[in-house]
Specification:
58% strand, Maltoporin, Chain A, cell outer membrane, single chain, TonB-dependent receptor, mainly beta, Beta-barrel_TonB_sf, signal, 5% helix, 34 strands
Length: 612
């Protein structure tokens, strides 16, 4: 059935039926959002479509991974080749995983060979909150921000020192431990700090099913260890300097056909940054940041088969925010070096440098909001200029409409350029042109939001068989795609009962072949009911997804599914709480990727000291 928005009333009725009382929300108007415009803004000032995942929701997620948490949000689908430690893809509004920019406290992470973030290596326990901004943001963040930007924020703290710790256990011999300390000192040169560490392990379940290449019925578990920290010192009034780091190591088993050899990946994700920011003039604030992220993947497929790919990104950013009366002008310079530090294939041992200049202007006049931004990225793939324009109008304090247009691009990965027998150095960046419109209705305790988008992509890099330049196959700029959809969300609070729901009706399509993009459904939705009474809380989550196809030719169908998750928590003392979760309560059998395993009915119980 061809996607259509000619009957929005019927679509809204479906969403409202899922949500009970028809009211929707992702954040309150007072929620502060940083990622959408690269400066702190209240949600009421943000034009871009944004979701904020707060600390409470993260705490309720139990032993789930970051990808599991994101998969419950609107506009997001995930694919994983097995358990929580397996290779994972995250799709925003139908965009590929390598068409999404991922940041950890402002530091960009991801592999230069695949172009995607290593979601399976990101520890959930370090996260304070997550901001997801949908739609093209290349005019603010440069290459790869076609589908959107996901920024993960770790904990920051002020005040007296506090200690937090947690321990939990669950199905598949899952174990989870974490601890952190955070606080600040007083005085003219105050220091705020936050440090933490975590350990997770699971026996897991078989990564593959019969029919998969390399199938082995043994359990495929994982172990993940991480440490993170941040410290900021006040140098003078309005001037501060700081440093932050994250180190995570994941050891994950996978199936490679051998019943005797333990095939496994060892993934390291590291990010570091130092920064200085201060007020240069009463209306001018400037900050500089030097960041580095490293993505290292070692694979041991057999006793005689091993590979190693280490990539690194170094970023320097100079960001200036200037208040022009009630308006805000931003000027930015960025310098990024990507390189393959180590690889089993010598042909991938390359590097590239990108220099970027960007400007944006945000203004508010009464009921009108306007933001405009432009950016130029100059690299070996050429000079790419992108821009965006957004407008919002408040009909009343409760009702606001928005509209925006923007362009974006994705730079070819090192694999698509240089991998022997696959990459072509002449490959060009993918390009995107997006237009969208939205409505948001917010009153005390209830909210309704709907966004329609149409993102047209050209010069898509796909595997061409045979290769137009010779050979059996290669990465080649040949296809066009259209990411079109309507996403709606709702929430309401009724005397201790919180209800939330979202639904996505989309048509992610390869326009060259006319086929649905692989592993993306045309309909997916979720709903949550949460009841609080004093020290007790209980809730239920429902996740729904329509059918998908595992391949670009649409010959391998993946069935739709529905998952029911239940949870309850008890704060039995001021600083102590107990969480119990039951995921996939109906023991639904389903696949996110063909012949790859997913968790059955599973439970998790966790004890925590301190307040997240």
């Amino acid at each position: 059935m061809k996607f259509s928005i000619t009957r929005p009333t019927a679509v809204l009725s479906v969403a409202c039926a899922v949500a009970a009382p028809c009211a929707f929300a992702d954040s309150t108007p007072d929620t502060v959002i940083v990622t959408a415009a690269r400066i702190p803004q209240s949600a009421a000032q943000v034009i871009a479509d944004t979701t904020v995942i707060g600390a409470e929701e993260i705490a309720r997620s139990g032993a789930g991974s970051v990808a599991d948490l994101l998969g419950r949000q609107r506009g997001i689908e995930i694919v994983r080749n097995g358990g929580a430690g397996a290779s994972t893809s995250v799709f925003l509004r139908g965009a590929n995983s390598n068409q999404v920019v991922v940041l950890v406290d402002g530091v960009r992470i991801g592999s230069s060979t695949t172009g995607a973030a290593s979601w399976n290596a990101i520890p959930l326990s370090i996260i304070d909150h997550i901001e997801v901004v949908y739609g093209p943001l290349s005019s603010l963040y440069g290459a790869d921000a076609i589908g959107g930007v996901v920024q993960i924020f770790t904990r920051k703290s002020e005040g007296a020192p506090q200690f937090d710790a947690g321990a939990g256990a669950g199905t598949y011999a899952t174990r989870q431990y974490d601890a952190s300390v955070h606080g600040s000192t007083a005085g003219a040169h105050a220091v705020s700090y936050a440090f933490g560490g975590a350990h997770e392990e699971s026996r897991g379940y078989s990564a593959t099913h019969p029919g998969a290449f390399g199938y082995n019925p043994d359990d495929d578990g994982y172990t993940r260890n991480s440490v993170n920290g941040r410290a900021v010192i006040t140098l003078a009034d309005g001037v501060e300097a700081g440093a932050q780091f994250l180190r995570s190591r994941l050891r994950a088993q996978y199936d490679n056909g051998s019943a005797t050899f333990d095939a496994r990946n060892i993934q390291d994700l590291d990010s570091y940054a130092v920064f200085l920011n201060g007020r240069m003039l009463p209306n001018w604030r400037s900050s500089v940041q030097l960041g580095r992220s490293e993505d290292k993947l070692g694979s041991l497929g057999s006793a005689s088969s091993a590979s190693q790919i280490d990539t690194r990104q170094d970023d320097f950013t100079w960001h200036n925010t200037i208040n022009v009366g009630p308006d805000t002008l931003q000027l930015l310079y960025g310098h990024r070096k990507e390189q393959v530090v180590s690889s089993s294939s010598a042909a991938l041992g390359r590097s590239r440098i990108t220099n970027s200049y960007a400007a944006s202007y945000d203004l508010q006049r009464g009921d009108h909001l306007l933001d405009i931004s432009a950016r130029n990225d100059d690299s070996e793939y050429g000079s790419k200029t992108t821009g965006a324009l957004g407008y919002g109008y408040s009909f009343s304090r409760a009702l606001r409409a928005t509209a925006s247009v923007g362009t974006s691009f994705r730079a070819p990965t090192f694999n698509e350029l240089y991998y022997p027998g696959y990459g072509l150095p002449a490959n060009k960046p993918e390009k995107g042109r997006n237009a969208e419109a939205g409505l948001r209705y917010h009153v005390a305790g209830a909210e309704l939001q709907a966004n329609y988008y149409r993102n047209r992509l050209t010069d898509l890099l796909v595997t061409a068989v045979p290769c137009p330049t010779g050979g059996s196959s290669c990465a080649y700029n040949v296809n066009r795609a259209l990411l079109e959809g309507l996403t709606m969300s709702a929430a309401t609070h009724l005397s201790g009962l919180a209800l939330r729901a979202n639904i996505d009706l989309q048509d992610p399509r390869d326009q060259t072949t006319g086929k649905q993009l692989a592993r993306r459904s045309r309909r997916h939705a979720s709903a949550t009911a949460d009841y609080s009474a004093g020290q007790y809380e209980a809730g239920a989550e429902l996740q729904l997804s329509g059918q998908r196809f595992d391949d670009a030719a649409n010959t391998k169908r993946l069935g739709g599914y529905g998952l029911l998750n239940l949870y309850t928590s008890w704060r039995f003392a001021p600083d102590w709480s107990l969480l119990v979760r039951l995921d996939n309560a109906t023991a639904k059998r389903y696949e996110l990727a063909r012949y790859y395993g997913t968790a059955g009915r599973s439970w998790f119980a966790g004890l925590r000291y301190g307040i997240r």
